[in-house]
Amino acid sequence: MPPPFSQLNKLEFSDLLVQFNFTRRINMVHVHHTWRPNHAQYRGHDSIESMWRYHTQNNGWRDIAQHVSIGPEGAIWLGRNFNLAPASASGHNGSAVSGPFMIEVIGDFDLGQDQLMGVQHSALIHVISAVQQHFNLPSTAMMFHNMMSSKSCPGTSVVFDELVEEVRAERAGGMVSRQMTEQQLRIADALKQLNREVPAARGDESLAEHEPHDEFERGGFGPASGLSRDIIDTLRPHVINLRGGQFSSDGNMTTSPQEVDILIDQHLEAALVQAQAQQQPLRIMLYAHGGLVDENAGLMQAYNRLAWWKNNHIYPLSFVWESGLFETITDQLKKALGKGERAIDFFAPTDFVIEKAARTLGVDTIWRGMKSAAEAASAHDGGALYTAKKLQAFCARHGNNVELHAVGHSAGSIFHAYLLTACHRLGLPAFRSLQLLAPAANIDLFKSHVVPLLGQKHGIDQLTLFTMTRRYEQADNCAYIYRKSLLYLVSAALDTRVNTPILGLDESLRADAVTARLFGLTGNSKQADIHWAVSSFTASTSHGGFDDDTATLASVVRNILGLNPTDAVVNYPLHDDGSKKRRTIHDNRYALCIGINNYSRKPLAGCVADARAWGAWLNGLGFQVNYLLDQEAKAAAILEGIDALLSKAIENDVVVIQFAGHGTQIADESGDELDRLDDAWVPVDFEGGNFVIDDMLGELFARHRDRGVELVLFTDCCHSGTSTRAAFDANAPEHQANSRFLYVEPELQRKFNQQHAATIRSTAHKDEVGWEIHFAACQDHQSAYEENGQGNFTRATLNILQAIPGDHMTYGALADKIIQSFTNDARQTPNFRSFSHRRSQPLFAALTRQNDAPTGNEKPNMKNSPEYKDSFERIERRLDEIASLLRNRLN
Question: What pTM was computed for the model?
Answer without folding.
Answer: 0.48
